[in-house]
Design a protein that fits this description.
There is one protein chain. This protein is α+β, with helices and mostly antiparallel strands and about 200 residues long. The chain is about 45% helix and about 10% strand. It has a domain at about 90-195: 60s Ribosomal Protein L30, Chain: A. The protein has helices spanning about 1-30, 60-65, 70-85, 100-115, 135-155, 180-185; strands at about 90, 125-130, 165-170, 190-195. The radius of gyration is 43 Å and the shape is elongated.
Amino acid sequence: MKQTHKGTLIAVVAIAMLTAACAKKKVAAVPPTPPTPTANAAPVRSTPAPARSAVARPPASASTPAPHYPPPATRARIDQLLARIEDAYFDYDKAALRPDALKALEADSTELRDILKDYPDYKLTVEGHCDERGSAEYNIALGEKRAEAAKSYLVGVGIPSAQLNVVSYGKEHPICDEHDETCWQRNRRIHIVAAAQSH
């Protein structure tokens, strides 16, 4: 009987220990319940993240890069200058700038240079043209030489080479259709225009 009582006692103690161990696991697994707000308690407010505009920034003049394209008023002035710079004309089968061609290019090129230096992405195109005589291939090459001669002059004045494109139209875009020397002289020319802008 003593042994049975002892066995029962051991069994009860073992069950109690197992129950206690299981109860601890359950207690640890259950999250605590949040406190119930009282009527007098002030509502908890989350602090909003600081706005991005509140971040200190350097002055606009120090961080804002210079514009790469001129504003509309400046573009209008460039167009006026280009309209006033007369076409430079060439002798038959020649690409050298004549004195009258140099004078035509000189007229407003310095003001144009002063404007363009502030807008490095703004470009001009120097077009080379020829009269109707000669093959299309020959006149394309001659028109390019004429445009390059004018570009070299403008670079010499101070306009950056990177802002001057060159294109030759050969005899494809005449401004005069008569078949005489007076008309041919008008077609042997360079013409400067604002390049198509990509912005």
